[in-house]
Please model this.
Amino acid sequence: MKKLILVSLTFLLLFAFNAKSQIVDEGPVDGLYNTTDQMDVERTPVPLPIIREADVMWSKRIWREVDFRQKFNQKFYFPIETQANWKSFIITVLDALKEGEMQAYDISNTDELLVPITYNDVVGRQTDSLPKIMRRSTPPYEEYDTVIYTEFDPTKVMRLRIKEDWYFDSQRSQMMVRIQAICPVMIKERNGEEITEPLFWLYYPEARNVFAKSYVFNRYNSAARLTYDEVFWKRLFDSYIYKEENVFDRRISQYAAGVDALLESDRIKKSLFQFENNLWEY
Model:
């Protein structure tokens, strides 16, 4: 009896050891080197320069929008299916919200970050209900009313709004920019029309801790790994201005349309750089 128990315990220990070895084994290195070693390093965001109120001689708040459908911005949208160390921007944000690593804020008319919301709030608000008339598949093929529910689809997030402050730093004698908040935007289709729906605001200085550890595909050099934090502070994105700080608190779309709106956006962009150039004499 004792021998039987001893043999059984030995068999169980060998089985447990074999199962553990199978889990620990990561398989062959699929690449030139083991990229997981780089991912395990705790990366932190690059510290931003300290701003003194006395050094800011001029500032202006700008709102701009990044469209993920533009070729230069596709790094935000892809991949559709999450891979080992590669996620799309919205999946990175949603995972951080779910784990409590980020704080989302409710959308307000003034774009202020006042009311915190949770991951469940974000997903729950995007569960749409669409009334529809259906026809039964059996005689007498009568019609009946029903409601179709659609869950939150991250692939519909195709834009990103950025709220930033441009300022001239007299200590450094240069124009600088500081991103304050970002807002993912969904694009939906209703009644044959394309509508935009902002989801929530994120306070960018706090979100940098997550973005600094989230890698982005570099189409020019796979060995030079980029993070979302580097994409933002290095300005590696294409965007257009949809609002500047003004006395009427109006967006460009409220007083210009079509080509005129594009020209107005370009005018605001040029005025920022012209202001800096006009401070110097050559």
About this structure: The longest strand covers residues 174-190.
